[in-house]
Amino acid sequence: MRTSLISAWLFFSCLGLCQAQESSRNVQVLGQWSMEGGLLATVLDQDPNRPLAYTLDTLSVLHVVDLSDPAAPVVSSRVAVPGGHDLATYVAEDRVFVIVAGDHLTVVEVSQASQAMLLSQQPSPEPFSRVFAYKHSTGQALLFGAGPSQALALDLSGLVTGTDSVKASLSTPPHRGILEGFGNLFAGFHPETQEDRLFLAGAGGYYVYDITNLEEPVLKTSVISAAVQNGRAIVPTPDGAFALTLASYRTAPLRIFDLAGEVVKTAVGAWMEDWQAELEDVRVRWPFAFVAGLESGLYVINIFDPTAPYTDAWFRPDPPSETAPLLRQRQGIAAVNIRNHDGLIVATDRTHGLWILRLEAFGGWHGQNWGIPNVSDVQDWVNGPNQ
């Protein structure tokens, strides 16, 4: 009798969860790691021998989560990191670090998953909203941070050892309106020109800099749209020819710009599945783009033709809110990460925690398999960018 009651409880619990979730047929939910109050940011360890996720909750605690069995994630260790907003990982020889950025810069060593250890914490030169770790073509390991007045490049090895780490700073170009500062950024190598490039989203739109020489950054392209006063995110295609962009207002579509030219004003393509959505994050694994849309959920769009993107898959943890769009809370899926070697997808949910997903026929990603540069947010810390 007791076994029957337990089985019935599990059945109805699962039934409730399954009824709440909605998705396209090509999305499989492998598991969930619940966190009351939700999560702020997550990064995946890209080493096939380290099936780990590092995730930051709303109480400023960093959790090391073992995803060996996606159906039953386990917390290996945790450490308090006050004042954090975003995360990045850095690998130096046989040591692995998580950088927690925000009002402070905190370095946590996670080389041993079961013993996450806080190494240092210092006031941040800018209260970073987003950070991006990058292996420069010169061999330098850099952390780029987007701040309310400027973007900074920090030396990661110096940050770990506690020495002076600021290598470069970029301010909003002049004559871009009353706003200033940046909200997000992406760094990547451009094989055609052999340049390191930094893509910035912020006041006035979007900007692309040549940062091959960190001491003399060169503005290559300004993307200025009358509909965008403040850019939220920008991610290039692996060849650097196009940029996918998000804007900092609800109902804004994902816009795709051709980056040819010094000033770009008109998008060549746009996508919006739900006009009430607020798009928060985007990652590119050509020919797919993974888009986090808060309450609207996670979308996978096909960008093989940048002028005509379309929805390929979607996942929504909860039914859409009946609240008027402008009154909705900024809850739901806020970020997405992809593990390149096997295609595992994790969605950071500000309401439920971490979702672990699979996309049908997506078993991993490498640019060479598509005949394009192997450029994504994943870094090769040993060999550097694909040249």
How are the SSEs placed, and which strands pair?
Layout: H1 2-20, E1 22-23, E2 27-34, E3 39-44, E4 52-57, E5 61-66, E6 74-80, E7 84-92, E8 95-102, E9 104-109, E10 117-123, E11 130-135, E12 141-146, E13 150-155, H2 156-161, E14 166-171, E15 182-190, E16 195-202, E17 205-210, E18 218-223, E19 231-236, E20 242-247, E21 254-258, E22 263-264, E23 269-271, E24 281-285, E25 288-292, E26 298-302, E27 310-316, E28 333-338, E29 345-349, E30 353-359
Parallel strand pairs: 18-22
Antiparallel strand pairs: 1-27, 2-30, 3-4, 4-5, 5-6, 7-8, 8-9, 9-10, 11-12, 12-13, 13-14, 15-16, 16-17, 17-18, 19-20, 20-21, 21-23, 24-25, 25-26, 26-27, 28-29, 29-30
Summarize the structure.
With 387 residues, the protein is mainly beta. The chain has helices at residues 2-20, 156-161, and strands spanning 22-23, 27-34, 39-44, 52-57, 61-66, 74-80, 84-92, 95-102, 104-109, 117-123, 130-135, 141-146, 150-155, 166-171, 182-190, 195-202, 205-210, 218-223, 231-236, 242-247, 254-258, 263-264, 269-271, 281-285, 288-292, 298-302, 310-316, 333-338, 345-349, 353-359. It has one domain (22-370): 7 Propeller (Methylamine Dehydrogenase, Chain H), CATH 2.130.10.
